[in-house]
Amino acid sequence: MGQLDGKVVVITGGNQGIGKAIAAQFAAEGARLVLAARNEQKLNSTADELRATGADVLAVPTDVADEAAVEGLFDAAQQEYGRVDILVNNAGAFDGGRVDEVSLAGWNNVIGACLTGTFLCSRRAFRIMKEQGGGRILNIGSISAQRPRENSSPYSAAKFGVWGLTQATAIDGRPFGIVCSCLHPGNVLVERRMDSEKKSDDEPMMEMETIARAALAMVAVPPDVNFLEAIVMPRDQQYLGRG
Fold first, then answer.
1. Which of 46, 91, 155, 159 is catalytic?
2. Which CATH number is 68's domain given?
């Protein structure tokens, strides 16, 4: 018997990286998956890959920064499965540079994907969970939400916002049995880092599956428990005093 048997889980940014790893981990524990991402080709490929393992997967191409698209995502989830038990807000984007060189378009892209998308998906999931008597929202933050590094103003601002939104959502959810928590990863060896010639300057990295196991631990606790925050990073990564 899996820890998530029969649970309906919506995962944004579920076509690659951390989102795909979480999807695979949750499917192995019996979850029914609703995967959302902007890249439809990668999304369908991931869904097919998971279905080949026996997973129950619905793929819904979605730009989480678009209100109508988010409404369509959750409409599809309810139509297919009738409920939403867990939401994993994983979708995101990165654009950096010194603060005086960051374009408004770059800023809006990161804030839209990381923060606005988390708000829009949480808002809709909250409404569904309130009607069904509870649920759980897991936001994927970053250690950048607590220890920014140079040339990261859009991403750091977005992830600080996600952590604040997590706490506000957790408070609002208490009367309705809705739990909200946040997982802050350090360096993860996602696809874009695998393809990088510099390998992120050879900084220590974790496997994506490490974060997926942490995510499972956070959502598999009893419904009256909130595993509010976790920081998971490579043992040797700079965090305190990072620069």
1. 155
2. 3.40.50.720
